Amino acid sequence: MNLKEIEQIEDLELRSIRLKYWNLRHKVFLDEHGVPDAMLEKAWNDLCKQEELEIKEYKRRNI
User: Fold this and answer.
1) Rounded CA gap, 54 and 60, in Å?
2) How sure is the predictor about 24, in pLDDT bands with cuts at 50, 70 and 90?
3) 36: which DSSP letter?
4) How far are the Cα atoms of 48, 49, 50, 63 from residue 45, in angstroms, in the given order?
5) How far, in Å, CA of 54 to CA of 58, rounded?
6) Contact at 8 Å (CB) between 28 and 47?
7) Rounded distance, CA 9 to CA 22, Å?
């Protein structure tokens, strides 16, 4: 998702989750010194998995 799509999410909690992980992935992408290129994909995938888990928990609580 991009920022424009995230901003269109009406549910504030879900929008917050999506925005949190978008920001974390963006920081990892920009952190050239802290995250070597070889580890970028792993870091990105780890954040995506964490986001999925948090969204599943959100859905469990709200559906």
Assistant:
1) 10
2) very high
3) -
4) 5, 6, 9, 26
5) 6
6) yes
7) 14
